[in-house]
2-oxo-4-hydroxy-4-carboxy-5-ureidoimidazoline decarboxylase
Amino acid sequence: MDIAAVNGLPYEDFVDIFGNVVEKCPIITAAVWTKRPFASLNALEAAIHEFIDALPQSGKEGILRCHPDLAGRDLHSGTLTRESREEQARAGMHALGPEESRRVARLNDEYKQRFGFPFVICARMSDKASILLQLSERCRNERAVELARGIEEVKKICRLRLQGLVHSDAPNKL
Amino acid sequence: MDIAAVNGLPYEDFVDIFGNVVEKCPIITAAVWTKRPFASLNALEAAIHEFIDALPQSGKEGILRCHPDLAGRDLHSGTLTRESREEQARAGMHALGPEESRRVARLNDEYKQRFGFPFVICARMSDKASILLQLSERCRNERAVELARGIEEVKKICRLRLQGLVHSDAPNKL
C-alpha cells in the first residue's frame, strides 16, 4: 500500500489496518485520520507523534500501560497482539531459559513497582542480551526519564509497524 | 467491587476490568489510574470525563471512530466487544427485519459520509424505535453539534458500564 492508497481509506479501514501501530491505542490512529491527506509516510508518522506529544502526562503513562510485559503473562497466556507476539519472538522473548525467565519476571515487577507502568522497548531494534541489560539498568532511572524513554520506544515501535504496512519511496528516511 | 477495592488494583487489573468503559479506548482507563485513589465512583467517572474533555477535537473524533456502527458489520461478523454486543442486543439491534436493516445501513452510511465518524448512541437508554428516529434526525445536524452529542453519548455508555462494574453507595447519584 502506498500513501495515496492510505489517503483514500475510509476511517474504518484506516483504523482496521493502522489501529495497532501504537499498541492497543486505536484512538490515536482514529484521531490522526482527521489530518489526512498525508504527504508521505513521514507525515503520517509526524501526525501520530504530534498527537502523543500533546497528551497530558497521564495520557503518556496510559499509552505505556497499554503495553504488555516483555516475556510476561500475555506472552504466556497467548493474549499478546499479533504485532507484539512477532516482535517479542524475534527478540527471543518466547524462548527464555528458566533462570532468565525468573530474572525478567523479577525485573519487570521491580520496574512496574517503581514507575507504575511497564518497561517498554523496541524489541526489534535490540536482542535478548541487550534487552535484559537495559531492563536491569533502566530500573534505576528517574521516573520522568523513564516516561520519556518509554514514549521514545513507543515511537520506534510505531515506525517499524508503519514501515511494515506502507511502502515508502524513501524507506531510509522514514 | 467497591471503590476501596478499585483503588487497590494494580494498573494491569484496573485496565483489564475497566479498559472498555470507553469503547476500545483502554488508554483512557490506563491514564486515569494515575489519578487514584478515587473518593467514589463519581470521582472515577469525573477523571474519565476530564481526560476526554481535554483531548483535542481530533481525539474526540478518534473516540467516536473506535465505536462500531449500530447493527453494522461488527454485529454481523460477530466482532463486537462483549459490552457493545450486549447493549445492541438489548436495544433489539440484532433482530432487525430486512427493511429495517437496509434503512439502518443506509442511514449509518449517510451519517458517516457527512461527519467522518459513526452515529453513537447509548442504546441501553433507548429503544429500537427511538434509536432509528434519532439516527435519521441526527443525520441533519451540524458537525460540531454531532461531535459534542456523540461524546455525551459516550459518557452515558461509560456511566452504565462503570455502574455494572462497581458498587456505588449512592447509585442514583452516579
Observations:
- Chain A has ten helices and no strands.
- Chain A touches chain B through 31 residues (CB under 8 Å).
